[in-house]
């Protein structure tokens, strides 16, 4: 059995009058520790697929097995726990909180985890700060910890986003165009960082990209078109 098993996944948006078939019976199996690139034209369903895998959204029909459990019909709260304890997200636009400084942004997943867990494993403020700083070191921007995120370059902001994505030590990292707004040099740095995380921790990584050069860093490339995966 694969680590992630998506079977006949359909995702529709909207209602009968204006229905969008974003995913049209997608079948996709992912093994633990794979690093996969998802390529495809705009509107082919890449982000929709990533959001479903990351438990940010639910499919219209089909079956989702994650790590041996059928989570297709999990309630929002149960999905939130999986999302927060197993998944790390990196988005194209960084989606950092601009009212927070760098280290506060990285602390967010840890604070959420505290809210979700009631089993005595809660971290105190100092432990949270320490862990966040450790991740900033990991991506090479600990010197910027107390700066506002708006004072950072695009490449630096994306490193903050990576630190935030890995601070909870996720089993799966979902990266939607993580190098989309970066120049070539910064893109290579970011993809190398992800590759390194994949190889060091056996983290499963799925990267949506339009860049064939970036896709080459992955072990497997899948291509999407009109809501299906091409073979
Ligand atoms: N929240 C939504 N409501 C309605 N339609 C949506 C929504 N999100 C996506 N869609 C539609 O679903 C289809 C797939 O969208 P998706 O965002 O998954 O594409 P994508 O491959 O990520 O494209 P891009 O490369 O432009 O990011 C598109 O036709 C899009 O317009
Ligand atoms: Mg997209």
How would you characterize the overall build of this protein?
Keywords: ATP-binding, Nucleotide-binding, Transport. Pfam families: ABC_tran. This is ABC transporter ATP-binding protein. This protein is α/β, with parallel strands linked by helices and 231 residues long. It has a single domain, classed as 3-Layer(aba) Sandwich (Rossmann fold). 36% of the residues lie in helices and 25% in strands. The chain contains 7 helices and 10 strands. The protein has helices at 46-53, 76-86, 102-116, 125-138, 154-166, 184-201, 212-215, and strands spanning 4-13, 20-30, 35-40, 61-66, 69-70, 87-90, 172-176, 204-208, 220-225, 228-230. The chain has a 6-stranded mixed sheet with strand order 6-7-8-3-9-10, sandwiched between helices. Strand 9 and strand 10 form a beta hairpin. Helix 3 (102-116) crosses helix 4 and helix 3 (102-116) packs parallel to helix 5 (154-166). The radius of gyration is 18 Å and the shape is globular. The mean pLDDT is 93. Residues 13-14, 20, 22, 40, 42-48 line the site of adenosine-5'-triphosphate (ATP).
Summarize the structure.
The protein has helices at residues 46-53, 76-86, 102-116, 125-138, 154-166, 184-201, 212-215, and strands at 4-13, 20-30, 35-40, 61-66, 69-70, 87-90, 172-176, 204-208, 220-225, 228-230. It is α/β, with parallel strands linked by helices and 231 residues long.
Oligomeric state: single chain
Low-confidence stretches: none
- Bound molecule kinds, no repeats: adenosine-5'-triphosphate, magnesium ion
The string of secondary-structure elements, in order, is EEEHEEHEHHHEHEHEE
The CATH architecture: 3-Layer(aba) Sandwich
User: Helix fraction?
Assistant: 25-40%
Percentage beta strand: 25-35%
The CATH superfamily bears the name P-loop containing nucleotide triphosphate hydrolases
């Amino acid at each position: 059995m694969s680590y992630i098993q998506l079977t006949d996944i359909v995702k529709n948006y909207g209602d009968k009058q204006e229905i969008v078939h974003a995913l049209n019976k997608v079948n996709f199996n992912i093994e633990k520790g794979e690093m996969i690139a998802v390529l495809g034209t705009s509107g082919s369903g890449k982000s929709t697929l990533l959001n479903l895998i990351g438990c940010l959204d639910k499919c219209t029909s089909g079956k989702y097995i994650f790590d041996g459990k059928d989570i297709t019909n999990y309630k929002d709260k149960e999905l939130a726990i999986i999302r927060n304890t197993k998944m790390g997200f990196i988005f194209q636009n960084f989606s950092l909180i601009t009212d927070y400084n760098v280290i506060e942004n990285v602390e967010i997943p840890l604070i959420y985890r505290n809210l979700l867990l009631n089993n005595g494993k809660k971290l105190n403020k100092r432990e949270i700060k320490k862990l966040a700083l450790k991740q900033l070191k990991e991506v090479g921007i600990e010197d910027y910890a107390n700066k506002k995120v708006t004072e950072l370059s695009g490449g630096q902001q994306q490193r903050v986003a990576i630190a935030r994505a890995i601070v909870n030590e996720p089993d799966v990292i979902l990266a939607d165009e993580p190098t989309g707004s970066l120049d070539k040099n910064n893109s290579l740095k970011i993809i190398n960082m992800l590759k390194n995380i994949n190889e060091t921790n056996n983290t499963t990584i799925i990267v949506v990209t339009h860049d064939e050069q970036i896709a080459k860093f992955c072990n497997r490339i899948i291509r999407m078109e009109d809501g299906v995966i091409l073979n």
